[in-house]
Amino acid sequence: MSSTDNKEWIAIFDQVLFPLVLRLLKPEVYHSDPLGMSETRVQAAILVCKIFLRYLDQLPNQNGMLELWLKILDVLDRMINSGQGDSLEEAIPESLKNILLVMADGGYLVPPSQDTTKELVWNETKKRLDRFLPDLFKEIFPEKPNEPSTPNSAVTSPSPSTQEHTNDQQSREDGTAPGTPEDAKNTNEQQGDDP
């Protein structure tokens, strides 16, 4: 795709979508049709998100993407805080969740620990989202402790092979062969001895 095409699609936001959304946020426009305006605002927010996702892979560089992305977050912040209904408070987080997942999957939004070149996008996205949807970023990208964690299943219940190894080791200590009736008898006696 040529540089001219990139500028054209960025112009879709700067010259069409952002001015449309800002106009829809004006109180006098809202009061002209309060019932229909809520749905119109929802549709405008969804449209902004869908078009961004459609052209995300065609952004010329990371800085161009970041600048546009931050403008989108600012516009969505204004929309969700316009105080004009629950429909925006439902639609915008869902659309943003979708964008964040696509950006993460495409390598545009990754933790700085994985790619330091994406640190600015990560930090700015987190900072902007924390302003108007404080739990969304944490929900999608839960903070992981710095130390390596073990899966819960490994901690709560030993695997069958681990259990067999433990029984074999115990049998050797008792002087019995693993898996023999004597082994089962010793295990039952030990369980009966416990209070």
Summarize the structure.
The protein is mainly α and 195 residues long.
Could you characterize the architecture of this molecule?
The structure is a single chain. This protein folds into 2 domains: 3-140; 156-193, no CATH class. It contains 10 helices and no strands. The chain has helices at residues 3-24, 27-32, 34-55, 62-80, 86-105, 119-132, 136-140, 152-156, 160-174, 181-193. The relative contact order is 0.08.
**How many DSSP H or I helices?**
10
What percent strand?
under 5%
Largest sheet: none
The structural class is mainly alpha
Total number of distinct structural domains: 2
Topology:
Elements: H1 3-24, H2 27-32, H3 34-55, H4 62-80, H5 86-105, H6 119-132, H7 136-140, H8 152-156, H9 160-174, H10 181-193
Pfam families: TPR_28 (PF23325)
Organism: Aspergillus tanneri
Protein name: GBF1-like tetratricopeptide repeats domain-containing protein
List descriptors.
mainly alpha; 195 residues; GBF1-like tetratricopeptide repeats domain-containing protein; 2 domains; 10 helices; GBF1-like_TPR
